[in-house]
Amino acid sequence: MNTLFSSTIGPEFVRIAGEQYLLGQRLLRVLVFVLLGASLAAARDIALVSNKTNSVSAVTLPDLVRLCKAQAGHWPDGKPVTFVMRSPSAPEMKTVLEKVYGMSERELDSLIVVSNHGRPVHPAIVIVASDEELVNKVASTPGAIGVVDVYSINSSVSVMKIAGKLPLEPGYLLHGN
Can you tell me the mean pLDDT for 107-128? Predict the structure, then answer.
């Protein structure tokens, strides 16, 4: 029976089928790798950073919510608070929208407009296009804080604790998963 099978199909057919099977397996592995990489990229760890001159180095969750929603106008030392963030529609802002704001993109867009009304010189909430721009804006604006990917942090800003935790510590609020 094995002889009949081999002679009917032929060794060339078996070789081609085997090559196609291996190619399919390789493509499947590449697809899985790409999908895993994309999901890991979307699950970023976000850090709260501040201007180096800021005297506050830690905030509670309720304080963070007030700062992000422009409900706190000044720091204890009198400097005006400016919250710097990426666009609410940016994928990296998903964690912040859910865990800090508790609102949709549209609601946050409205909050930004209302919070900045009448504050053209020193807006309460500033939107930037990139993490690099965010770090530079926080570093150059006294009283500024912002949320940024942990891998974009440099020595020009200070990392703030949220509820007693730093980024990458277990239980940190802005952990991306």
Answer: 92
Q: 83 has which bridge partners?
A: 125, 145
Domain ranges of the chain: 2-42, 46-162
CATH architecture type of domain 46-162: 3-Layer(aba) Sandwich (3.40)
Q: Sort strands 157-159 and 46-51 into parallel, antiparallel or unpaired.
A: antiparallel
DSSP collapsed to 3 states, the chain? CHHHHHHHHCHHHHHHHHHHHHHHHHHHHHHHHHHHHHHHHHCCCEEEEEECCCCCCEECHHHHHHHHCCCCCECCCCCECEEEEECCCCHHHHHHHHHHHCCCHHHHHHHHHHHHCCCCCCCCEEEECCHHHHHHHHHHCCCEEEEEEHHHCCCCEEECEECCECCCCCCCCCCCC
Q: Give residue-wise pLDDT tens across range 1-24.
A: 555 555 566 667 667 767 777 666
Dihedral (CA of 26, 29, 35, 38) sign: negative
